[in-house]
Amino acid sequence: MANQNSSGLTLRAILLGIGLSVVLAAANVYLGLKVGMTVSASIPAAVVSMGLLRLLRRSNILENNQVQTAASAGESLAAGVIFTFPALLLLGYWERFSYSQVTLLALCGGILGVVFSVPLRRVLLAQPELKFPEGVATAHILRAGHETGRGVTVLVAGCLWGAFMKICQSGFHILEESIARGISIGGGVVAGGCNLSVALLAVGYIVRLNIAVLVFAGGVVAWGIAIPIYSLVHGIPTSDGVALTGYDAAFQIWHSNIRYLGVGAMLVGGLWALVSLSGPIRSAMKIIGGGGRGPGEERDAPGWVLFVALAVSAIVLPFLYRWVLSGTGEESGFLVPVLALAFALIAGFLFSAVAGYMAGLVGSSNNPVSGVTIATILLTALCVRAVTDASNAVEGTAVAILVGAVVCCAAAISGDNLQDLKTGQIVGATPWRQQIMQILGVLFAALTLAPVLNVLYDAYGFGDMLPRAGMDPAAALSAPQATLMKSVAAGVFAGDLPWGMVSIGAGIGILVIIADEILKARDASFRMPVLAVAVGIYLPIDLTVPIVLGGFLAGAAKGEASLPVVAGLLFASGLIAGEALAGIGLAVPFAMLKSTDVLTLDLGTLTRISKPLGLVAFAATALTFVLLRAKSGKRTLP
Predict the structure, then answer these.
(1) Using one digit for the tens of pLDDT, what is the confidence trace for 390-434?
(2) 478, 485, 468, 474: which is closest to 408 by C-alpha?
């Protein structure tokens, strides 16, 4: 093993980091479009890195840290892209994802996130209340990796099982993917269900019981309370003059109205996080430009490098915005692009601070990126409408989404990078070397995302947008955040945003914040971050059920803040990576042959048992977590 004082910034670390950045970014594109949530790639990247570098001589923990830093940067950039860019396609503004435009916008947003995270590192990593749980967990996994290589086996097993389940569900169609049902009670409707995706079970395991319960609680508010009340008051929706029934009726009510409760809750949550962070934000602003100061291992990238990166982004973005907006067929000049730039830079820094703080508080997987992006898009849309021709709704909506895209990428990168910098602080890495790897991870992930988006769109479709006639809408990737972003921005210009629902959602958000402040004052271990509830409100109920089941599995594990044992975390990470990569792999034949049924196996009468088989396989996966925990004994993540 190499000297631990070596930098770790080796050629093989750079190449491996770039490769994992690309692979994990693609995996999170699929997961985020499917369920609207992503999880930090730091843990799986650290394990894969350890497994590969152990095959080589003279590897050390700092090399693993550098690889994991680049890989997680790619994953977080993917989150920023999928939450926003598909909104332009859903709007009808784009027919496909332009490679050059997606790549350049994502790159600008990602570089801004790295730049903003430099001054924020010195402020937020020094805050005693910020534990950066995933950063600490990753550091312990890196240390454990130099004592045993068994973790790689667990992760690979999870990856293979996740891929097998996905292929059987979406490819061969021999296992049921989801079970959902609705019933009519009086004049109203109540619905529920459970998606049998093992990746969702793993998401719940990783985010842990507290967050998983809140996500499910949001689903109960929407599906167990709001939908029945709405259906009793307004009646059952119809399709072609025929009243819908069961789950279809409940889903239509949620899709058309109830999910806007989540918009209001997210808007309040994003603004509240900004207000709560006024002190740390002021501290960070005071040290911008002093990037290189700091002795030895605390040295950041030089200030002049940060200034050049910021200046180049500020110069490029208006021209880039103007280029994208030329799709309206009108000459908009530079007023709107310059206004968009100002919003992107100001909101980008403020919400990067919010995302960084929340990552320190609850982890990168629970980052409030979607909440702050919705706040950005709503405020941008209102301002653009006030200072420009409000009749040009297409351009105005596109401007709001483009600003939100850059802010979303910056905030996602900042939050995740601060987790990695916390890991580096624990294992003794030098910040400026990690920042180089972050930039490389952003660069190569940005080059990858547009083709992956196009392949997935051609294969499955996103939300209500299907690329060709005859496709099964149930097989489409829901893209919940992007759908919501489009609806909010378009609603401002069309004047049909359901402000009543948004206002009620804002009221729910305020009540949750008050409850959380009471819990905080009592120093309670259970907290109520409002954005977790908001996520549950705008997710279909069948997606929140496996998440809460995974949370209960994690809640049975011991450790600080209920962190699952190492083996469970690695198995969960493998399940997510395996299902996501299998989903992308299936997308290739689906897109080429223009059908999601090309691999379907005709089992005749045995098709009737696809639902019981799906339930058994899902239950077996849950049991595996229990067995892994028992086998791991008392070994937990501090």
Answers:
(1) 556 777 888 888 888 898 899 889 888 888 888 888 888 888 888
(2) 485
Block residue for tokens 């990695």: 420
The H or E element spanning position 85 is: helix 85-90
How far out from the chain centre does Cα 323 lie?
28
> pLDDT at residue 438 above 80?
yes
Helix (H, G, I), strand (E, B) or coil at 410: helix
Among residues 462, 368, 351, the alpha carbon closest in space to that of 407 is found at 351
- Please give the Cα distance from 390 to 382 (Å, whole number): 10
Judge whether 391 lies within some domain. yes
Maximum Cα–Cα distance across the chain: 74
- Give domain status of residue 1, yes or no: no
The single-letter DSSP state of residue 291 is: T
- Other CB atoms within 10 Å distance of the CB of residue 233: 9
Domain containing 55 equals: 11-292+300-468+478-632
Q: Residue 463 has which token pair?
A: 């939300």
Q: What is the DSSP letter of 84?
A: T
Query: What is the distance between the alpha carbons of residues 481 and 370, in angstroms, rounded to a whole number?
Result: 7
Could you tell me if residue 473 is inside a domain? Answer: no
- For residue 410, being part of any structural domain is answered with yes
229-242 tens-digit pLDDT: 999 998 888 877 78
pTM: 0.75
Residues 194, 544: Cα–Cα separation, whole Å: 8
Q: List the alpha helices (DSSP H) in 388-498.
A: 393-427, 431-460, 480-494
| Helix axes of 198-219 and 566-593: crossing angle, nearest 10 degrees | 100
pLDDT digits (tens, 9 = 90+) for 441-466: 999 999 999 999 998 888 888 888 88
- Rounded CA-CA distance 112/309 in Å is 8
Instruction: For strands 238-239 and 188-195, give the pairing.
Output: unpaired
**Exposure on the CB side of residue 4, measured as CA atoms within 13 A:** 8
Tokens of 421: 């910098």
